[in-house]
Structure formats: C-alpha cells, structure tokens
Specification:
Layout lengths: L7 H13 L5 H14 L4 E7 L7 H7 E8 L2 H10 L2 H4 L3 E5 L13 E7 L9 H10 E12 L1 H5 L5 E4 L2 E4 L7 H11 L2 E8 L11 E7 L1
Parallel strand pairs: 1-2, 1-4, 2-3, 4-5
Antiparallel strand pairs: 5-9, 6-7, 8-9
Helix pairs in contact: 1-4, 6-8
The structure holds S-adenosylmethionine.
C-alpha cells in the first residue's frame, strides 16, 4: 500500500487506537459477542483476520485456531494488538501485518479455512476486491465471516466515531445495503450459509445494530 498518501480512515484509526478498547462502544462489544456465538463452535487451522484492529477478537480466534494472521492498515491499531499477545505470539502462532484489505493480502492462495472481517467494510468503498481476496485466501470449503454495522443503522446516520479532547471525529464510511454483501460474495464464488441481524441489550425498540454473514467457498 502507498504510505506516502495516507488514507483519512487509516489516520483516524491511528488516532483512535490508544482509547479504542476503553471507550464505551456498544457496536464493538456486540461484535465480540456475535463473533463468539457464530464461530465459537467451530475449529480452524488458519484464520486470516482482516482489519483486526486492536485484536479484540484475535485472542478469541487463537483459542479456535492453530494459526492467526491479523491484517490492518493502521500501524497503531496493530501495535495495540501486538502488545496483547503473549504465549501464542512466542510460539509463532499469531502474526500481524500492515496491509490494506482492498489490495493483495500477504498470504498464499487457499491458505485459510476462515477469513473474518469485523466492523471494517463500512470503511471500504468497493466490496468486490475484498471478497475476491477472501476467495483467493480461502481453501475450498473455507468460510468467510463478515460482521458489520447494520445498513438500517447506517441509514439513520450511525457511523464509527470517537471523542478526543472534547472533539468528535467521525470516520469516513460508505453505505452498503445487505444485498451488496450478498452480490459481492456471489460474484466472488462464495455461497451464503447464514445471515443474522443483531441487537445490543440496550437497543430496545431500535433497528438492528449489526448484520452478520457466514459464507462458504
Ligand atoms: C472499527 S475497527 C474494528 C477492529 C476489529 N475488527 C474489531 O472488531 O474491533 C475497524 C478497523 O478496520 C481497519 N480498516 C479500515 N479500513 C481498512 C482497510 N482498507 N484495510 C485494512 N484495515 C482497514 C481500521 O484500521 C480499524 O482497525
């Protein structure tokens, strides 16, 4: 990726990294619950976690997999993730790399039996390159898990945002209706196993907060 022309999204996550885990964030917390619910009963050899951020889900994934590769284009978010890894890191079971989800990922073809992408795709203008890379990275039968801010919430104006010194930064986001995820997956050669809508315990009476998809190559 081109480090000479930083993406505003990357710059925002670099700025957010230090407080991302501690800030009140129901979307982040719900995503953690959903990921454990959907993937908790499964076991994997190699996981590619795209946009792993501060590693909120990485420690869970290391408990379900032999190897995890965490990719993110924010060096500061990755720095927090690296700092959390203890034993497995020393055993060489977890690797992190600075990488843009929309260009070629630093992994071999058919290397993974799970690709997971959590709360990332709202920041990506075009879904097709990400789904194409997921298909390339997955072995036949491997799964792609996507968990995203729900389009119904996006339509109401919800965006990833954080506060710093009394100022709110809203991070650039793109609207993808649920059908866009399904179309991108189908075009990439992935078939839908399940789709779910999710509410946080405090979301009573509101539209769903997250949508998740489990696809299979
Ligand atoms: C809301 S955070 C989610 C982090 C983690 N997946 C989680 O669930 O907590 C979004 C992450 O996606 C990363 N990201 C956004 N666009 C990206 C891109 N094009 N390539 C790689 N990472 C990206 C950001 O740097 C950030 O770490």
């Amino acid at each position: 990726m081109d480090h000479d022309s930083p993406s505003p999204v990357r710059a925002s996550y670099d700025a957010w990294a230090a407080t991302y885990d501690a800030d009140r964030n129901r979307t982040r917390d719900l995503d953690g619950e959903v990921t454990r619910k959907i993937l908790g009963g499964l076991r994997f050899r190699t996981v590619v976690e795209v946009g792993c951020g501060t590693g909120k889900n990485t420690s869970f994934l290391t408990g379900r997999a032999d190897r995890v590769l965490g990719l993110d284009f924010s060096p500061r978010m990755l720095g927090i993730a690296r700092g959390k890894v203890r034993g497995p890191w020393r055993e060489g079971r977890i690797h992190f790399a600075v990488a843009d989800a929309t260009v070629g990922w630093p992994c071999r073809d058919a290397a993974a039996d799970l690709v997971t992408c959590n709360l990332v795709l709202e920041h990506v203008a075009e879904l097709a390159p990400v789904f194409a890379e997921a298909h390339r990275a997955l072995a036949p039968g491997g799964r792609l898990f996507v968990s995203e801010l729900h389009p119904h919430r996006q339509a109401l104006g919800t965006k990833a945002r954080f506060e710093r010194a009394g100022a709110t930064t809203e991070i650039d986001a793109f609207f993808h209706p649920a059908a866009a995820f399904l179309e991108a997956a189908e075009a990439a050669g992935l078939s839908l196993e399940r789709r779910d809508d999710w509410w946080h315990a405090e979301d009573d009476g509101k539209p769903p907060r997250l949508v998740s998809f489990l696809f299979r190559r």
